[in-house]
Amino acid sequence: xxxxxxxxxxxxxxxxxxxxxxxxxxxxxxxxxxxxxxxxxxxxxxxxxxxxxxxxxxxxxxxxxxxxxxxxxxxxxxxxxxxxxxxxxxxxxxxxxxxxxxxxxxxxxxxxxxxxxxxxxxxxxxxxxxxxxxxxxxxxxxxxxxxxxxxxxxxxxxxxxxxxxxxxxxxxxxxxxxxxxxxxxxxxxxxxxxxxxxxxxxxxxxxxxxxxxxxxxxxxxxxxxxxxxxxxxxxxxxxxxxxxxxxxxxxxxxxxxxxxxxxxxxxxxxxxxxxxxxxxxxxxxxxxxxxxxxxxxxxxxxxxxxxxxxxxxxxxxxxxxxxxxxxxxxxxxxxxxxxxxxxxxxxxxxxxxxxxxxxxxxxx
Length: 364
Prior knowledge:
Blueprint: H1 8-17, H2 26-29, H3 31-34, H4 36-39, H5 41-56, H6 58-61, E1 66-75, E2 80-90, E3 95-99, H7 106-114, E4 121-130, E5 133-134, H8 140-146, E6 151-155, H9 168-180, H10 184-197, H11 203-207, H12 216-227, E7 234-238, H13 246-263, E8 266-271, H14 274-280, E9 283-288, E10 291-297, H15 298-303, H16 308-320, H17 322-333, H18 351-363
Helix pairs in contact: 9-10, 10-12, 16-18
């Protein structure tokens, strides 16, 4: 019986199955040698069914793309501290806004994250991690590798960051060639894809244009395309919409939100405009004189501000914003013929603004 099969392995398995024949174990024993081979993938399928459960958890447990812990920045010439202990954490696909008046330390904080602090300024305490990597002690070549490919930035006045003597498309393609190692034709194709991604109407035409041939909004889109050319994990937008008119500003904000949703880009949005932060960001840091006076989810900070400076910012925005103008316009169309001289002068500018105005009047 053992010589009836040519395969030695098969003959070894047959006698092993035959002794079990008397107890009627023969039927299950014979298929078992053939089943194991298809049965092997089945355990591989089992983990995949369990993996979705573990894959559902990572979104909340994703490693931070950027971590800033207690960062302090010092002016070494004047021997004084400019930024006092800024801390926040940013995960992929999330956006944090930093708001405050000029000189509050917003831009210095971002420059510290990028490793481009001005001369005589230095991080005196705290730590900064980009994609889990502590930037303290990075060499110049290491910074060159990190910038653009892991973290990038878009600043105000894009024309200052683009070369006026080169076509804008060539500048984007150069970044792609250096960071991604693509050849010239492939880099050009990728640059055209990026110009399309930032919603420029005629990418082919824009590619061959110079900076002086483009509007401010178009230049900002080109700069954003350059910043995301190497697929960074973090993008810092420092007053990126300040010099733009309202309609173009809205388009740029929509573009940033779209990039965030499609690519999982982590955004740091620096602005003095609360409306910009409210539209894009998940959480907000309010800075004043180098210190974070309030930090929390955007809705909590805007609707339930705790610090008096935050309340003042919201009050000023409500007082001079379009909503106030429209409210005033509606009231003038149907004026009160007999106004009450005892009426609250702070009524109509919102609950937060009204309370803040009263506080300011009391102080004055």
